[in-house]
Amino acid sequence: MNKLRKSPFKLDKIEKNPTGFGLRIKQITECFQNLYNNRSLIISGPRGIGKSSLGVQLQNVFAGDNTLLKRCYINEEFPNSVCIYKACSKQDTLDQITLDILSDLENEVKNLQLNFNCKLNACLEFNFGPIKAQINAEKDKKEYLPSTMANILANSLIKTICTFNKDNLNLGINIMLDEMDQLNRDINFGHFIKVVNETLNNKGVENITFIVAGQTGIFNRFNNEDRSFERIVKHIPISPLDEEACEYILLYAQDKAKPPFTIQQNAKKMILSLASGYPYVIHLIGDAAFFKMKNEKTMTSIDVLSGIENILQSNKKEKYIEKLKHINPFERKVIITLSQYHSNEIPVKIPINWILDRLLNKNNSIDKIQSCLECLVEKGYLKVKSTPPNNNKLYYFAEELFRVFVSLKRIEKYEVDVNRRYKDNENYYQANIDRPYQLDENSYNDQYFFEHEIDNELTYEINSTRIDEVMNELEEAEYDPDFEDTELDILYYDE
After folding, report:
1. Are residues 335 and 386 in the same domain?
2. Splitting the chain (495 residues) into consecutive groups of 10 residues, what average pLDDT does each group show?
C-alpha cells in the first residue's frame, strides 16, 4: 500500500515561520533599523531570492512575534501594528490598490474587538464606505492624477490611526505591497508613494510604514518616476544566502519532517551547490528529492538526482524551452557554448577569454560576441562580474538549473546523433558506442538540434544516468560564498 507523506519544504508557500527562515542578519538588521525609525522599505532582487518571505517576516514582528528579532540579536521592542498584505498583478491600478488596502484595513480594524477584552466602540463603528464611493467615482473618470489616490489613501490611514487613539490603542499600520514589478509602468507608483509619505509627514502621523517588494530593477523604475523616491523609501537589495543560512533551511526541514530524516553529506552538497544561495531552489530540489526517497529516514544523492530528473521533466522543462525560444539564434549558440564549460565551483564562472576562444571566427567578431553577452545579461539569462587586478570579466548563469538543462539537451543531442549514425552506418556506431559522452563542436551541430527541439517541441527522456553525466562535477563542486553578486544589475528592469 502506498503511503502519503507531507513534505517539510515550502515549495509553493511564503516562509511565514520565523524559526525556519534563512537569515541574512546584516540586511534584516538594516530593515529593522529603518522601520524602527518610521521609514518605509523597498526590497528588490531576482525571483526566488526570498523577497516576499523577508517582507512577511518583518510583518510578523509588527504583529507581535519577536522571534526574528531574537534570532538577529536585536533587543528593541516594536510597536504592535495592523498588517496588510497585497500581491499586485498586471491588472492592478492605483485606485484598485487603494481600494484593496482600505477594504482589508477595514476588516482588520473591525476584528480588533476579538483581540481585546474591553469594548472598542470606535473600531466597531469604523467604516470606509464614503471613501470607497469617492474612489469609485474617481476611477470612472478617464484620467486622474496619482496624487488624487495618494491623498485619499493617506487621509484614510490617518483616520484609522485616529480611531485607534479614540479606543486608547497604541497601534501602528504596516502595509506590504508584493510583486510590484507586475504593475503597468504608466501608473506612476513612485510619485504615488511619495505623495502618501509627504501627506503623512505634514500631518505629523507616525507608525505608518510600507514594505514594497519587486524584482531587480524595481527601485530604479520607481526612482525614475519620482526622484524623491530614494529619499523617502530605503532600498534593500537582497543577495543570495550564505552557505550557513542555506544549510540551516535544509536542517530545519529534515528535523521538522514526520518522521524526521537525515540528508547525506553529498546529497546536501549537491542541493546547496545548485541552489547557489536561492531559498526557492533549495525548497524546489529538496521537495522533489523528498518524494523520491527510497528510505524515509535518509535522503541520498540518488534521491536528489531523481528529484532533479522530475523537475526537468515537469516543473522547469516548458519554462526553459520558452526561455530558449525568446532569444535569437546567435544568443542561443552562446548559451549552448557556455554550458560546455566545466568547473569545480558553483556558480560556474566562465572567463571571457574562454568564451572568445570558443566563438571567435570570421563570422563572429569580438564586438559581436561581447554585445551578445551584454544582451544576455540585460535579459536576465547571465550575470557578469569583473575580477581584479585586470577587471577580467567572468560570466555565469543566472539560474544554475537552467545551465544543467542546457547541458542535458547537449547530451541528448549527442545520443540522437549516435542513433542516427547507427541507422546510416552500423560500423560507425560500433566504433563509437563505447565513447564517453562528449560533444565535438566540429562534428555535431548543437545549434541545429536546439532549433529542431524548440521549433517542433520534441521530447526526449531525461534520466538519472544522463543527469549524472552532466552533474558529476557537483560531487566535487564547492559553492563559493565569497562570490557575491555585486554588479549593478539593478540597472536592468525585466518587464
Report:
1. yes
2. 85 88 93 95 92 95 94 90 95 92 89 70 73 72 76 92 87 96 92 94 92 94 93 93 93 94 93 88 94 94 90 82 89 90 81 93 91 93 84 88 84 63 54 44 43 43 52 56 42 31
Positions of E strands within 182-253: 208-215, 233-237
Q: Which residue carries 491600478 as its cell?
A: 93
Question: Beta partners for 42?
Answer: 212, 235
d(CA 165, CA 158): 11
SS (H, E, C) 449-469: HHHHHHHHCCCCCCCHHHHHH
Q: Based on the domain organization, do 200 and 290 belong to the same domain?
A: no
Shared domain for 232 and 166, answered yes or no, is yes
In Å, the largest CA–CA distance within the chain is: 91
Considering the domain architecture, whether residues 190 and 205 belong to the same structural domain is answered as yes
Do residues 335 and 376 make contact, with C-beta atoms less than 8 angstroms apart? yes
Cell of 40: 518605509
Q: Which domain holds residue 127?
A: 25-237
Structural domains of the chain, count? 3
Choosing from 237, 257, 279, the residue where a domain stops is 237
- What are the start-end ranges of the E strands in 52-193? 81-87, 172-178
Examine the domain organization and report whether 389 and 493 are in the same domain: yes
Q: Which three cell numbers stand for residue 430?
A: 560500433
